[in-house]
């Protein structure tokens, strides 16, 4: 594709993020690559400890350089971010790229009003006056659906409900009209109704501004609602990538099968038990050899030669679609068909 709109706005190439600890090196992200174009939403899904949040904090440069080794390339609109000076990253953070954190209550300062916290970011990047920053804060609170914004702008975070605090966080993240928005499980602590409102708000704002969004979650139901494309992470690596429809209706990796099997569905009878993935995510201090999912995978014995435990499966992406698994295409079709049939029955 040659149009400017379809060129990657964010490009991650072979990203590795390793932490030095007293116990050894934690390989939090270990060879991750993906692209994101403007106006699209990439959903990154996986269990806790899979490397989702670390990836996105690293994009923003929010890691400790004294204890973190970052390798690979992170380019935003053609500008390399890995190794960029802190002053460069400060100019980009909150301006060209921004983040909505999971817990708004702990992310907002209890000592300052909502309006001051929103306006502070705007003042830093525009150099405007306090009056202009306050007016901008009221405008953003209006945009995210806060009632009586000219009054609530002077409230403190504890005076807001959970849903309103999250809306205030979104207003803060969008106050400078960023071109990249990273949302780190922003609806996890909210009830279903408020969760749907927040997701509708993000979609409306994306249509208005053409923002590229990375949406981090462990919930495939949320992914089904908001994402255009999906990246499934496990043990610091991408194990599957594709469009939302491809990944949810025709998943290729046993880990994705496990995530879908452990999620309740309105299409299944209420008495059908869920099938949680056995075991626990791997230690990234001493990750398993070969495929990192193999200790928990029910299909390892189907692969000849013990490849699952000895050789890392390659992730070959063709037209945005691929998975890292030693199963053959025929085996994947057969096994997933059987699993889907068992769930339906």
TrEMBL record:
Xref: InterPro entries: AAA+_ATPase, ABC_Ni/Peptide_Import, ABC_transporter-like_ATP-bd, ABC_transporter-like_CS, Oligopep_ABC_C, P-loop_NTPase
Record-level Gene Ontology MF annotations: ATP binding; ATP hydrolysis activity
Membrane topology: Peripheral membrane protein
GO BP terms in the entry: peptide transport
Keyword terms, alphabetized: ATP-binding, Cell membrane, Membrane, Nucleotide-binding, Transport
UniProt cross-references to SMART domains, sorted A to Z: AAA
Primary site of residence: membrane
Keyword Chloroplast: no
Ranges where the ABC transporter domain occurs: 12-260
Gene3D superfamilies, A to Z: P-loop containing nucleotide triphosphate hydrolases (3.40.50.300)
A UniProt-annotated Pfam family: ABC_tran
Gene Ontology cellular-component terms listed: plasma membrane
Intracellular or extracellular location(s): Cell membrane
PROSITE patterns per the UniProt record, alphabetical: ABC_TRANSPORTER_1, ABC_TRANSPORTER_2
Family: Belongs to the ABC transporter superfamily.
Protein name: Oligopeptide transport ATP-binding protein OppD
Protein's organism: Streptomyces davaonensis (strain DSM 101723 / JCM 4913 / KCC S-0913 / 768)
